[in-house]
């Protein structure tokens, strides 16, 4: 596939477009969280549990990712467990720690809500050449790292 001509854009225009995407995404996260009966923070924490896959995170891991205290993450995990989203498992190497696992039926429920959106994104990606997709992937990856580092440096809650 050959790249389609794209309109020129300045870094300022790209930042404005990104800000608009982020704002729309935040509104969408609130809506999706309501659909699945969770708060945005609880849904975000659950997403990190899903992302971890078989490398089950600890409560401390999740607290660091979501930028909340370990006490706050305990409340999040209590709510997720009561709602049937996660189970807690003892850490095989340290009995003081607990690992968090996503329940497969809960993963399926959340994915069902996201599937139509991801299908539309997949259609949108079809408008881009493999080289353009590589640039997008590089940018998303690097921007995510930059954002995580910025949060770590400037927004840490302790």
From TrEMBL:
Domain HTH marR-type: 1-145
Alphabetized PROSITE patterns for the sequence: HTH_MARR_2
SUPFAM superfamilies, sorted: Winged helix' DNA-binding domain (SSF46785)
Highest taxon, organism lineage: Bacteria
Gene3D superfamilies, sorted: Winged helix-like DNA-binding domain superfamily/Winged helix DNA-binding domain
Entries under Pfam families matching the protein: MarR_2 (PF12802)
Name recorded for this polypeptide: HTH marR-type domain-containing protein
Phylogenetic classification of the source organism: Bacteria, Bacillati, Actinomycetota, Actinomycetes, Kitasatosporales
